[in-house]
Every structure is written in structure tokens, then in C-alpha cells.
Design goal:
Strand order of the largest sheet: 1-5-10-11
Structural class: alpha+beta
Oligomer: single chain
Distance between the termini: 30 Å
Largest sheet: 4 strands, mixed
Helix content: 25-40%
Low-confidence stretches: none
Shape: elongated
Strand content: 25-35%
Radius of gyration: 18 Å
């Protein structure tokens, strides 16, 4: 099992949040559906990567699905960008790294690929690098093929500092009924200190 990782979520689509809590799973997206327009890009020198390999890479990236998580629970930008201005949640969870490929992101820019570099992990390698500007996310990616979801073990739900008392009460009651072993924490207990 991995260390505790965090999925920041808005509660705007409450059905998706309930699905996560009820079924202990996270949706795995295609790379083209992620918010960074540079996702899946790679460099190659003209003549160093033949068309056959480029086609295989495109196909491989197309069948890979991934879930983006963070190693941090207290980053103001993450709370603001991914949890509706700190009105949502960060779900603390573990992933079984015997079942999935789990890779921390390397923030060293776009990967360069050559013919001799190509193997069955090349698409995963390409999708494990991002530009340095994203480093604040401290991202870890979970990769899967032939499935839309990744099974997780939820340990805690952290509620945002701007979450209303009514929403907090509702989330707390839901979690206590569905899985009382999940800790419920308010982000205000560790944010802004």
C-alpha cells in the first residue's frame, strides 16, 4: 500500500463524491481529459523516432487511464483550484501498488524519446513528467488499463475551510453512515498556521 495520498474534490457533482465514499474507488481519466495542455507530449529528433513507434505511443497513451493524486493535504493552491475555493474536500486514501502502477511525477519538463528507448512502459514514462510550473501539486499518478476506476482504501476526508456548516454536517453524517472508520477532519485545524 502507498503512503496516504490526497484527492482534492469539489462537491459540485455530489453524486461523484458519494460514489467514491460508497464504492471506495476513483475515476481514472484519459490523459487528453486532464487540465494541462502539454500532457502526453514528448520530444524527438527528426529521424530518431520512426513512424511505427510514434503510432504505437499514440495507441498506448490512448489505452492508459490515470488518476492524479497529491502527497500534500495543506497546499492553498490545490485547495483553491480543485476543491471549489476550499468549499470541497481532500480525500486521504491509499492505493495498492501491487495492483496498479503508481508513479510520482517528475517536474523536469517534457521527455525526449528515441527509437532505442521504446518499450511497454514508454507511455507511462511520458505521462510521468510535467513542467516545473506544476511542482506545487506534488503529484503521484496511478495508471491502469482496461478499467475506468481505481480501487482505493479511504482513511480520511478533510473538509475545506470555506465549507458551510450545513454541508459539513451533511458530509459528516453521510460518512458516519457509509463508513464510520473514515476520519473526518476540518482543514482549518492545520491550514493557515
Amino acid at each position: 500500500m502507498t503512503e496516504i495520498l490526497y484527492k482534492y474534490r469539489s462537491l459540485d457533482n455530489f453524486r461523484n463524491f458519494v460514489d467514491i465514499i460508497l464504492k471506495n474507488r476513483l475515476y481514472a481519466s484519459r490523459y487528453k481529459d486532464l487540465n494541462d495542455p502539454m500532457e502526453g507530449q514528448y520530444y524527438y529528433q527528426t529521424g530518431e523516432l520512426n513512424r511505427n513507434i510514434r503510432d504505437k505511443l499514440l495507441e498506448e497513451k490512448g489505452v492508459l487511464r490515470l488518476c492524479s493524486l497529491s502527497r500534500v493535504k495543506d497546499n492553498q493552491l490545490m485547495w483553491s483550484h480543485y476543491s471549489n475555493g476550499q468549499r470541497g474536500v481532500a480525500i486521504g486514501l491509499r492505493v495498492d501498488d501491487n495492483l496498479y502502477t503508481v508513479r510520482p511525477i517528475q517536474y523536469n519538463g517534457i521527455v525526449q524519446i528515441r527509437n532505442q528507448d521504446f518499450n511497454d512502459q514508454t507511455a507511462t514514462e511520458i505521462l510521468s513528467h510535467k513542467l516545473e510550473v506544476w511542482e506545487y501539486e506534488k503529484e503521484v499518478r496511478v495508471f491502469v488499463r482496461d478499467r475506468n476506476y481505481i480501487d482505493v482504501t479511504i482513511e480520511e476526508v478533510i473538509t475545506g475551510v470555506a465549507m458551510s456548516k450545513a454541508d459539513f454536517g451533511f458530509v459528516k453524517e453521510l460518512i458516519e453512515k457509509v463508513n464510520p472508520s473514515i476520519r473526518i477532519t476540518k482543514a482549518e485545524t492545520f491550514m493557515n498556521r
